[in-house]
Design brief:
The complex is a heterodimer of chains A (163) and B (203). In chain A, 12% of the residues lie in helices and 50% in strands. The longest helix of chain A is centred in the N-terminal third of the chain and has 15 residues. Chain A has 163 residues and is mainly beta. Chain B has two domains: 40 residues, no CATH class; 150 residues, Glutaredoxin (3-Layer(aba) Sandwich). Helices cover 38% and strands 22% of the residues of chain B. Chain B has five helices and nine strands; from the N terminus they run αβββαβαβαββββα. A seven-stranded mixed sheet of chain B has the order 2-1-5-4-3-8-9. A two-stranded antiparallel sheet of chain B has the order 6-7. In chain B, helix 2 packs across helix 5. Classes of the chains: A mainly beta (163), B alpha+beta (203). Strand 6 of chain A pairs antiparallel with strand 7 of chain B.
């Protein structure tokens, strides 16, 4: 009996050491799939950071990302960056992000994205950041953001080229 | 035959829609890329650039005169900006790396549009993540506004639920060694054309 428990613990530990190999870094809640949440590393003293992910709704009902919470910052908000006539603007989207049935929505740099506001510390490349996302219909879902380089772009996702 | 009548209406509607869309595309091309596009900066354009007095990240007051003799890449931003500003600084670092040693001549200046929060200490900390040659500049609101005015830049404080954010010009101004304006790099501009523009002021 004791050996069985030990064996189970050992197996669990060996899996825990390779979480990125064992999972494709996707999360699911209800009929939603949250693909590859990632964030950009931040310079020292930066108060804000950007978080990005894909939401795939395979269900028959619309849903909506409303925001969430994270251990890394005081607030996790949804913002939209726009550029017109050389002017950069950023606004909070308090109404959230709608994901219709059958739709996939990508939150990415220079578009609709998550904002980690009032960071508790610097986001460093290679770190993971725990967060809880809140959907109108599907409810909350725990995810981990993988922190990539400061200027990282969506296609530059090392180790996730198959996505 | 009412069915035929509807088919005919349908067909004419389709023709109308296709014509409208084609006309819209043509008009769009004409105004954006074609002969109808707005004139870009020409001889009669107002001069961009000029005198400024600001404070660098070491806390020292500096004027534009101290940067004369070397070309400048001037950018307006702020450290509470998660996307445009770090992206631009990373792009500038990558481009200057590609140019090699001659890029040492180029002085990259980040002028904050948010002097209330961007103290010299804050800029110094923030800039640690980027090319060490980047000079961060702040100052009083009046000093920053004067620099913005000289560069025909734009910045506006926008209140939010929990504070404020800044709208700001997102282009990099490339200035010749004598301080005169040469051209600008737009945000989202391809590396190849940005690189060619930097080389123009380094010549």
């Amino acid at each position: 009996m004791n050996r069985l428990v030990m064996g189970a613990v050992a197996a669990a530990l060996s899996f825990a050491q390779f979480p990125t190999v064992a999972s494709a870094h996707d999360y699911a809640v209800g009929s939603l799939k949250i693909g590859h949440p990632w964030a950009r590393a931040t310079p020292p003293a930066a108060k804000v950071g950007g978080g990005y992910l894909k939401i795939e709704n395979s269900g028959t009902a619309p849903d909506r990302l409303l925001g969430g919470t994270t251990e890394a910052a005081a607030r996790l908000e949804i913002h939209e960056s726009t550029f017109t006539d050389g002017i950069a603007r950023m606004r909070e989207k308090t109404e959230g992000v709608a994901v219709g049935p059958g739709e996939t929505v990508e939150l990415r740099p220079n578009a609709i994205h998550l904002m980690l506001v009032d960071l508790k510390g610097q986001l460093k490349q290679g770190d993971t950041v725990k967060a809880s996302l809140r959907f109108e219909r599907a409810g909350p879902v725990e995810v981990e953001f993988q922190v990539q380089g400061i200027g990282a772009q969506p296609q530059a996702t090392p180790g996730h080229a198959t996505h | 035959m009412p069915i035929l009548k509807w088919v005919r209406y349908g067909a004419w509607s389709a023709v109308a829609i296709v014509s409208f869309v084609s006309a819209a595309i043509l008009l769009g091309w004409w105004r954006v890329e074609g002969p109808g596009r707005a004139a870009t900066v020409g001889q009669n354009a107002p001069a961009i650039g000029g005198p400024f007095t600001l404070v660098n990240q070491a806390g020292k007051t500096v004027t534009d005169r101290e940067f004369r003799g070397k070309p400048m890449a001037v950018f307006f931003g702020f450290t509470n900006c998660p996307e445009v500003c770090p992206t631009t600084l990373v792009q500038m670092a990558n481009l200057t790396k590609q140019i090699g040693p001659s890029a040492d001549q180029l002085q990259v200046l980040l002028i904050t549009v948010d002097p209330e929060r961007d103290t010299p200490e804050q800029l110094a900390l923030y800039l640690q993540s980027f090319d060490p040659r980047v000079v961060g500049l702040t100052g009083s609101r009046e000093q920053v506004d004067a620099a913005l005015k000289a560069y025909k830049g734009y910045a506006k404080k926008v209140p939010t639920d929990n504070g404020y954010t800044m709208d700001h010009s997102a282009s990099v101004y490339l200035m010749r060694a004598d301080g005169s304006f040469r051209t600008m790099i737009d945000y989202h501009e391809e590396d190849a054309s940005a690189l060619a523009k930097i080389r123009m002021v380094l010549e």
